[in-house]
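Record type: ASSEMBLY
Status: queued
Input:
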Amino acid sequence: MREMLYAEALVESLRHQMATDERVHLMGLYFLGLTKHRAIMARLHADYPGRVYHPPIAEVGYVGVAIGAALAGLRPIVDMATASFMFQAFPQIVNEAANIHYMSGGATKVPMVFHFNHGIRGGGAAQHSHSPQAMLWNTPGLEIMAPSTPRDVMGLVNTAAASDNPTAWVDHVRLFDTSGPVPDDKDFSIPFGVADVKRQGGDVTVFASSWMVVRALEAAETLSAEGIQAEVIDPRTLSPLDEETILESVAKTGRLVVVDECHRRCGVAAEITAVVTERAFGDLVAAPIRVTTADVPIPFSPPLEQHVEPTTDKIVAAVRAVTDSAAG
Amino acid sequence: MTRTRPLTDLEILARMWLIRAFEEKVSELYAAGKVAGLIHLGIGQEGSAVGTCAALGRSDYVFGTHRSHAHAIAKGADLRRLMAEIAGRSTGYCKGKGGSMHISAPEVGFVTATGVVAGNIPLALGAALTSVTRNEDRVSVAFFGDGAGQSGPFHESLNMAALWKLPVVLVCENNGYVEFSPLSAHTVVERLADYASVYSIPAVTVDGGDVLAVRDAVTEAVDRARGGGGPSFVEVLTHRLRGHYEGDPARYRTLSEREEWKRKDPVARFARHLAESGVPPESLDDVEAAARTRVAVAAEQALADPPADPAGVTGDVYV
Ligand SMILES: Cc1ncc(C[n+]2csc(CCOP(=O)(O)OP(=O)(O)O)c2C)c(N)n1
Ligand SMILES: [Mg+2]
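Status: finished
Output:
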């Protein structure tokens, strides 16, 4: 085990893929956004000049090029920087990449990865703060990974790069500065569809992915001091989704808080709540509570931004409310 | 890449007749309610499909459109599997999951078609990028219509094809119509080949009624691509003799226009050309008759195949 920053683990996993599989090519340079860490990404570019492309600002075009390259046998990892710009490439991601294998009856495949940084990063306002996981999740054919730790990003990138399906890699710039242990084995991979219990607890199940895992864990610390033990479940991949681990936790706790940075309507939290109520209604002793981003475009001014996003305080309040309601 | 032997004139005529006969059969089956969905036929555009694919080898890639039965046949697709797909049969190229607009026959280099106008153009560039990376002597072709020329993906692709010198041939089948309106309602640009010039992509405009002219223009483009000279743009002036889709009465077209294009019909025109150059009329008739027989047999077999089975409907979402 080694201690690493998330940003370092991310680049190391890309570097490992470049070193071990000639079919892996990188398109787009902003995996680390405009953060201070981007210099380590620049070193990787410099080391593989023939397999790293700096595309023009033409997302639907270059993402389509990457998809075509995958159809012909490469394994591109294509970056669109901020998730809000991913919409420029939406036609290629949801209408070509996600459909082609199915439309061909399995005759063709699109083994590639789409990377972008989602969520509120502070001052991004409505056009640089999107969390499009739910929109992508409504697209059969895509795998979706949303790592939350240095270890997970490394293990999931290894799996995504080896996967024959198109994978959306939903990242969050606020994670880049976090650090944690990472296995020495660079080939270590985390299978898709296996959730991770990030914290054990018997009183309430808190579902969270990506950056929201960090906030959920913070909230759990506060709650622990009050005597409430929250179990934090990180799905790590939304597609495929490990429903069983969530249901096992709810069977134990009887209470569910779903935290997610998507907007509330038809968001990730809505789907998780639906899965649990449909499959385990009898286990619930209180109505589940969703902590999500409000249904407004993301505003610019910091107090407005904090007002609409799922903060640690809001998670704490939701857990208190769900544990207060009904008899356990 | 193993260079394929060039097609003889009679083989070229045979492919054109195969397409004509196939498309007429699809039209007939659609009218009889035996084929469902949105069907866009390539009748009248055979010169473009066959002329282009006659310049390609089997391992070259083709990316098609909503109107691509002709492209798939020209690239060598199996008639029975193609018809089975269009008729929604489990024996179709895509097990009945793709249908008329989303044909995929990768074993003959017809990688995929897309129902999204211009969506296939970046894909062709990407396949070309793979070929360059792997030092494969392989060219990618994207077919698209005049309507695609005004779209973002088209222009983004032209720019990147030129920027990265990709071995791709962009074949614009300019049939003068975008659904139900003339091209002039979509752009003030009259020669779509002009779009290529701002990106410094060599471009020509050819008469799609002359299959050999198309073949020669595409051959030059393919040679350029194989020689490392990057992309080319071939604008093929053509005409669809049917409506935009089966069932479209095409009232927006004038009678004189129709008559003119019937005279220019690429299949009849090439047959006339061969007759004038001394091929006996019987052998020309034989080519047509053989094509019609092959299509009739393929269609009969395809329709006798079982309809796609719902038991497989959730398969192939993921590998
Ligand atoms: C992105 C997109 N917009 C609209 C349509 C609907 N549509 C289908 S075919 C077509 C016209 C295409 O015209 P053109 O490119 O000239 O091809 P043609 O049909 O003439 O072969 C349109 C608008 C579509 N399929 N895709
Ligand atoms: Mg047209």
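Annotation: DSSP finds eleven helices and eight strands in chain B.
Annotation: The mean pLDDT of chain B is 96.
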